[in-house]
Amino acid sequence: MTLKRYLMLTAVATAICWTVFLFVSSVINPEMTSWVGFFVFYLALFMALSGTASLIGFLIRFVALKHELAFYAVKTAFRQSFIFALFIIAILILLSQSLFNWLNLFMLVALFVIAEMFMIHSKNR
Predict the structure, then answer these.
(1) C-beta of residue 85 within 8 angstroms of C-beta of residue 50
(2) For FRET with 124, which of 23, 74, 89, 118 sits at 20 to 30 Å CA-CA?
């Protein structure tokens, strides 16, 4: 797959995910829905955030940091966008359950930093 085709497919899929998220957030009543409604809401938001962050991360790496190949920039941007979207979803779930505080935020940041360091270290092997 060419880089142009990948970027076009990712942009279209991200636009579809944002559309689904907006539809779900306008249709689902959080006071009346079951766990399925919350799952669909968080899944649509996760996919939309992941695609958006992936595109932005790739463009920043490709334009600003021209010292690496496009394949590695895509791979790194996708991995980091996945972690970023998971981080945002975890914060939103903590907020919805009234469990968000500074200690939980610190532990969550530490967990995701350790995960990223582990992935970077395993990539270098």
Answers:
(1) yes
(2) 89
